[in-house]
Amino acid sequence: MSTTRREIAAPHWLVQLLRSTPVPIPWNMVARAVLALAVPLAVGYALGDIGVGALVSTGALPTVLSESAGPYRYRARRLGGATAAAALGYFAGLITGGIPAASIPVVVGVAAMSALISAAGSNASVAGLQMFVFCVLGTGQHVTGLRVEILLGYFCVGAAWSLLIALSSWTFRATSPERGAVAHVYVELAAMLSATDEATSRVARHQLTTAMNTAYDRLLTARSWLSGRDATYRQLLNLLSASTPAVEASVAMVNAGRRAPDDVIDHFIATSAAVLANQDLPEPPEAPEDADPVLAALYAGLARIGKGDNRKRREVQPWHKRLRSWAGSLISGPLTWFAALRLTLCVAIAEVVALFVPFERSYWITLTVGIVLKPDFGSVFGRAVLRGIGTVIGVGIGAAVLAAGGEGWLLVLLIAVFAGGVAVGKVRNYGILSAFVTPLIILQMDLASTGSWDVVLARLVDTVLGCAIVLLFGYLLWPGSRRPQIGGRLAESLDSLVKYVDKGLVLAPSGEARLERSRARRRAYRALADLRTAFQQVVVEPSAAGRQAVAWWPVIAGLERVADAVTEVGVTLGGGAPAPSDADIALLTAALAELAAAVREERDPAEMPMPDNEQLSGVVDQIGAAFDAVRGPDLVERAPLRLVRRFLPYHRRA
């Protein structure tokens, strides 16, 4: 049996590693990437110097690599910060390139800085990565023979062009991303209520959680940077907030295994279309006279949409407070320092190895190490393997270009294809991204000037060496890299669930109480969604960390069902049902707190008394199932075969 388990478990992590995220192709991002990267090359070729066009196109890379969906203000800050950081790193690389005594300390220092500033947030993390990447690329540009100021000028021209492309539609589509995010919530509600089986409905509920998190993030981010004239954002935020009763009632109906009436589903679809088109909302359907509490709550939630109270404006946090918060996270967060130390050590090793590699421009070794070891981008093992696989494919593409004698307009066309592939790979799979970004940069920075087969061989060897350094020094030999860590995240999610149980099972007669309950529910579901993301990052590893991540999956799925059961009870309270007693609620919170303690201490949870209350029977059953899951096989060396076969349908759709 043990042999069979190993045979099945090993392909499981490999399948998950190669699995592509099933999201639509972002055609708008593809178009922007093609324009940003291919047009400078086309103009350069038309003017007789494709090498200059390639250098200008390189300046557009930071924007393309940092591009993400979101409000225009958010994207402007993200892309502007990433481009400025890339220019700074590029300049540092240019002035030290060709002088190892100067370039090695600079590259290692920029790597450490890149890791540390990642703690300041997503935008800072992206900016730090771009600063490091283009610092490394800049160290290899001395071979062009051009002066530093000329190279930096070409880079800045390309950067300005790509920013113009990325933000050109702001003037006439200013609020479209936020409006689309809110409309998407109603689409996901309709999809969840239309599901015909439990597996599909659970996946739809996960997608609804993601849609709501995205909508709140975009709106709150946008409003926090506005002065006072934010009527559109305020209207959208009020609309989203007012949908909370409908969301809770929908989750309760799905948790009860029921399908909503067709007029409810049609109303959600019509509401989505109205929000997207900025039109008046449709009139909600009337509730049937014999509706039970859950169905009545759903119809009442429909009537509530569009009639929410105005929310208080979110104040802008001063820059000095944000800086203080970041500094505090560095002081109190040893994980950030460990990640920075690991990145710095591996980059230093890569720089030394590059000195002894008999290839020109062996900065790709360091580049590979830095990109793979970025501290907040998931599994080191998974990224190293995908980077290697993607680069082998990318080098194969580059070799095919050389074999075909790619030059001139064919080179421009290939750059356009690779640029679009980068945009797709960013949202689908890291291996796909690597497969396209490798030939893209080869054509931009190498083939345009050399056109040599040696470049292809060098890139392949450099990337393999970089991945080997990461796997050896950053993974296999690094203390704790293979130690299971998802249990701590699970305990934190349990803490959020305890707070939701405490707020969600009591009557909420006032608007403030309902708002507190809504916030507790959102925090619990967001914590569980973040936990699923952490699980998906670790499950690709063949070490004990990956095996335990698979073993934890029943617990994660069980906690999601607990949250759904609490939501169902909370909805019935709004229909006139009596609230559970404080003593019964205390028993539930104590049981979940004991479960969190057991996870943290890696022990079996103790037997806990549970309320004997028919109203809470669903919650009690789901908590009991979560206890059984934690009491399953050993927490450190759980055999994943039975768990994978039982829960894999949910995981593959997650």
UniProtKB/TrEMBL annotation:
InterPro entries: Memb_transporter_dom. Residues 350-473 form the Integral membrane bound transporter domain. GO terms for cellular component: plasma membrane. It is a multi-pass membrane protein. The chain crosses the membrane at residues 79-100, 106-139, 151-172, 335-359, 380-402, 408-425, 432-450, 456-478. The keyword Transmembrane helix applies. It is found in: Cell membrane. It holds the Pfam family FUSC_2. The keyword Membrane applies. Keywords: Cell membrane, Membrane, Transmembrane, Transmembrane helix. Its main location: membrane. Belongs to the YccS/YhfK family. This is Integral membrane bound transporter domain-containing protein.
